Request: fold
Amino acid sequence: KKTLKNISLSIEEGEFVTLVGPSGCGKSTLLRIVAGLADYDAGTLHINNVDVSNILPRDRDVAMVFQSYALYPHMTVEQNIATPLRMQRLSRAARLPILGNLLPGYRKIRQGIKHDVKQVAAQVQLEQLLDSKPAQLSGGQRQRVAVARAMVRQPGVFLMDEPLSNLDAKLRVHMRAEIAALHKRVGATFIYVTHDQVEAMTLSDRVAVMMDGEIIQAGTPRELFEQPNDIRIAQFIGSPEINILAVKTDMQGKVWLGTQAIPLMLDQQDASVKIGLRPEHLRLSDSTNRYTRHHVRLETRLERTEILGHEAILFCRHLSTQARLTARVPLAVMDAMRSKGTWSENLVLEADMSQALWFDMQGKRIEPQAEQAQQQVLRMIVS
Reply:
């Protein structure tokens, strides 16, 4: 069984690229291949325009930060950070505790290592913890030690394999900010692996979405959110998840949702297609709302509500098709409807069809006919 299939990805120098996807999609395997820790059957890997396919991991100018931190428990923070430099600059004999101090010339090298370690520790705010052991540190501090150990080598490429997955929610937010600041400060290339779309969208210059061993689409976070080329990407990117409604087209290409016709034309005739509507593109409607031609009204029944500070997530069910619909609405709109007496479990949601995403039954993106879409989207109640 192939883990990766036809992977092709170019990353610019200094770029922050995240590999994101569900568990088992091959993102960590791809990162290990870049690091030289996993073999592959075909293809080539270039770093700084040099084919490194047959080059040992230690000679690839990369540094990896693992999910488990991989710190030496018997060493201090300073010793953990210094390990790559000791392996790089000192001979095996010079690394011995007693003999190393007696060998000529090595004292100066050790002093240089100590200086570099202190400099990097200051950058990640660990200078007060250099004499501590990993067991004495918090999860965030251990993560910073792992990052510092990678930084001290001054690699051209940082590889990070789900480095924040073991941290609590508040600490993850803090560490995201630290990693973003680190990238800006050092200017190196970052390849970051995560299954968390929030990390991917907030940290990255570009995101490569992986599924079933393939890169489905690579682009900026905004491109993936607004222009996904596959329904799996539309469902993976965005929280809450996008709403998907199954519709049909007739022999003329007119779209039908259940028994109701949507005055919109597609190039797909006599076919089943799917509409994707982001929760933020649905709004609450009542009889006082002013209607615009790009909106379609959907009659629903409210099943539950989640209050999130100034906004609410409404979980509804479309009365005609029984499809689930999720809407993100301002709390002030709900309060206004309650004060007017128009709030109930039977809600009408207006869908902004100018923001809708269309997919064929294979999940590939399709586009409505633009001129007809502008001319023919009229007011309608889908019941």
User: Anything to note?
Assistant: The longest strand covers residues 295-308. Residues 20 and 93 are 43 Å apart (CA to CA).
